[in-house]
TrEMBL record:
InterPro entries: HTH_HxlR, WH-like_DNA-bd_sf, WH_DNA-bd_sf. One of its GO terms (molecular function) is DNA binding. Residues 3-99 form the HTH hxlR-type domain. Keywords: DNA-binding, Transcription, Transcription regulation. The keyword Transmembrane does not apply. This is HxlR family transcriptional regulator.
Amino acid sequence: MPCSITRPLVIFGDRWTLLILKFAFSGIRRFNGFQSSLGISRSRLQDRLDRLIEHEILVKRKAEVGAHEEYRLTRKGHDIYPILMAIRDWGDTYMAPDGPPVRYTHEGCAGEAHSRLGCDACGEELTARDVVPEVGPGLLGDQSVNQVAT
């Protein structure tokens, strides 16, 4: 389906993949570290790690110290961070009745990190009511132009 929301769901379509990424951002790099942190089966973890490597979100390489291998985020992987922060913002707002379980603070000033949607031209903060989906170059010539949706 020619949709930049639907296509990534092939990669991120289950909770395990997003949780692996969450832990990768927290500094976990080894297979056993992911497994013990997540309580996931070895085969399911290996499948999700392989998928993230296949899509160049993680890279597997020999550790700088020791004989083990580790999984490292690529630039493409680091670009997923705002997505996780947007999910976290939503979770803090609607699923944390006692307040956020974890504060993500700016190391430089101790302010809180949040994900925001903004216009690249004027900088105005946007909501779904401010955005109009339009046919883009990836859909031109496709017979499914009616599939443009929010």
